[in-house]
Amino acid sequence: MENKIRVRFAPSPTGHMHIGNARTALFNYLFARNCGGTLILRIEDTDRERSTPEAVQVIVESLKWLGIDWDEGYFGRDEHGSPMEKGALGPYTQMRRMTLYDKYLARLIAEEKAYHCFCTEEELDLKRKAATEKGLVPKYDRKCSALSKEEIEEKKKTGRFAVRFKVEPGLVEFEDLVRGKVVFNTDQIGDFVIARSDGVPVYNYAVVIDDAEMNISHVIRGEDHLSNTPRQVLLYRALGLNQPLFAHLPMILGADRSKLSKRHGETSLLAYRDKGFLPAAMFNYMSLLGWYPRDGVEIKPKEGLTAGFSLSDVGHSGAIFDEKKLIWMNHEYIQKLSAKELADFCLPYIKTVDVAGKSPEWVVGMFETIKTGINFCAEVPELSKLFFKPDELTAEGLAILAAEGAGKVLLALKAELSKTQLTKENCKELIGAAGKAAEAKGKDLFMPVRLALTGAMHGPELAHFLPVLGNEECVRRIEEALKKNSK
Ligand code: GLU
Prior knowledge:
Elements: E1 6-9, H1 19-35, E2 38-41, H2 53-66, E3 72-77, E4 83-86, H3 98-110, E5 114-117, H4 121-133, H5 149-158, E6 162-165, E7 171-176, E8 180-185, E9 192-196, H6 203-213, E10 218-222, H7 229-239, E11 245-249, E12 252-253, H8 269-274, H9 279-287, H10 302-308, E13 319-320, H11 323-335, H12 339-346, H13 360-370, H14 380-388, H15 395-402, H16 404-419, H17 427-438, H18 443-454, H19 462-483
Parallel strand pairs: 1-2, 2-3, 10-11, 12-13
Antiparallel strand pairs: 3-4, 5-6, 6-9, 7-8
Helix pairs in contact: 1-10, 6-7, 9-11, 12-13, 13-19, 16-17, 16-18, 16-19, 18-19
This protein binds glutamic acid.
């Protein structure tokens, strides 16, 4: 039998993809893949002022980067700029579904469940203020609901209008798969606008028509939409359409439990891509934003996350986006990569690290040396800089290099390097031999070596670092350092 589970991700293309939106997409994905359902991507572009084609592209790009694939809906644009779609219930972009919204709107008006409203913004504003001053919930006073057909036709010729849905007194109840029973009293709601003069529908109306027409079985979205849901339930009832099940996901908060904002880290998903986070780590971390696996194992591949996902394990309280934990997890994922895989992943992000002219072995060796220190790729330029150029010497460093003993050590090391090819295994021995020849040990031996080769008094393990640097570059740096030695 065909699986009837159908979920959708329905973003509005108005900017970057926020972490919160990406989490909504991810939970829809986990849910659909867990139960063999269908995931649909629908673009909600009825906000004409804020929607842009670029933002639509960002949505597709963000989902693909995170590793979310979908089965039906919008898939981007082809080379001629035409939308690519898959599925029999399209179009999957709201502005291309106007005839459908018109059809249901006409029905609501004919059945007197909705009416035209010609009140101006100024008029409504004054009324809202007056209500608030009296301590009342501002609600439309139904002034236009009493207009006759003739009056409506007459007013339509000149003025702009809205279509309002008539909200009758009573309770709206629904069972939320995350939050349990939710009850709203409609006296808090008031007749709300569902379409504007130009026929463009308002979110709460369009979403109902689309979810019903696309046979959506579960609406999984952020809790910020919870207050919209009673309005949508009223519309389903008025139109006699099948109501989906609802699951409202807890809000994503910063570590201080306030609404997630730039203060807590990046809020755009692709900012993490641009910093060189691994999509698999991001996918893993984000799946824990409100859901926790029953077995308590947090680091899991996609298949494990999908297999264990259940809406009944989604928490009610806010999900904390802890960038430190994300960084820790990304570090863990990075450690699982080989140095070659890491190099292949990192280098496209870090154009400032110029490995042109370096051999593949050199590049892999460098990544092997710095791997344990990498949390995300944007750190690679800093962690790898000594491979390209020693640090600037400090006054203290210069003084150490200027001493007579330092000169002897460096000359002796240069001599050793001309005889023996450096390896990880013989590096200590080689420095030891230079020390012997120069009659230096301990700090007197290692400090001039470290300063000459790295420019700094602390830094990488020399036995790992020097063999990657190679004999030739080591000798070159020693010669530079010897110039600072006057004796
Ligand atoms: N376009 C809405 C948004 O991006 C969709 C909300 C919903 O899932 O119903 O918030």
